[in-house]
Amino acid sequence: MASHQDFVDYVAEQLREAGTIRSRKMFGEHGLYCDGVFFAVICDDQFFVKVTPAGEAAFPNLPKAPPYEGARDYIWVEDVDDRDTMTALTRLTCMALQEQPKKRRK
Questions:
Q1: Fewer CB near the last or first residue (10 Å), C or N of the chain?
Q2: What does pTM read for this prediction?
Q3: H-type helices in 4-100, by residue range?
């Protein structure tokens, strides 16, 4: 089941204090970018953030699950009404992702 645009827009609005949020349709679902950094996906109207050591350390009680079959685990943010948690996790995740060395395409 594909995610609804209303849900994607709501999540982006909730994250407005984290930076410039942009969504992009990907394989029937949505990828999220914050200030140009790909950090999350929305699948089946659920919000999943990439796992980083900083995110795991700051939010150890958030569950992890794959957003779709065959995917790696992401941090699953069930309560998309909790703007503070979402914003803090997004900021930490994007900072950590920006510090990682860039992967070279072959």
A1: C
A2: 0.90
A3: 5-14, 53-58, 83-99
